[in-house]
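FORM 7B: Structural annotation worksheet

SECTION A. Query
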Amino acid sequence: MHAFPHLAVIDWIALALFIACWSGYAWFSEHSRLAESGLIGTSHRYRLLWAYRMLEREMRVTDSTLIGNLVNSVTFYANTTIYIIAGLVAVLGASDKLIGITADLPFAGEGSRELLEIKLMLVLASFVFAYFKFTWALRQFNLLSILVGAAPLGKSGEPGIDTYAHRLAGANNLAGDDFNRGIRAYYFGLAAAGWMLHPLVLAGLAIGVLIVLYRRDYSSAALAILRDDA
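SECTION B. Predicted structure
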């Protein structure tokens, strides 16, 4: 808290814009009317279709392999995030040396140890958030594996099949959504690092990340392939 008085007005504006971009896009991509037409909503429909196809198959080795690949991807990101957090904590302990380095960078301006630490804390908080999302997604994918193991055999319309298909797709969606939130935290964590150069760099990178995320979720070639009218 003692570092907050060191923030200038432009720092507060850039920080507010950063938080608005992150939280605003998170809400927009998950809860707005356009969410269903984006990459996340379209993926949800394919996960439900996957659940129905899996319940029709007696041999589910392929499904287990696919879930295993998803688990490996999330595990990779979770492990990588731990190293990033450890590195940031180490940098916090050597903030005095970092002040000398950042002072020579363009647009860095003058700063203090307290100001640098609060900037680093924003980056650290972003990756800590990502770590929690990745580990929770990993646990939910493990729950999905249990649901696959306990899944009955049958086709759509048969007793209990529709309910179980939605249960499978729901668990898959929850895990996938938390994985997406972790990836989003990576993007904004990189944007947060721009604050060490200048508040305007933080604001610019936050807006840039917002544009990149929107283009990938709503106007990318990947979305066009997944859409029914592709």
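SECTION C. Observations
DSSP finds eight helices and no strands in the chain. Residues 95 and 101 are 10 Å apart (CA to CA).

SECTION D. Sign-off
Analyst initials: ____
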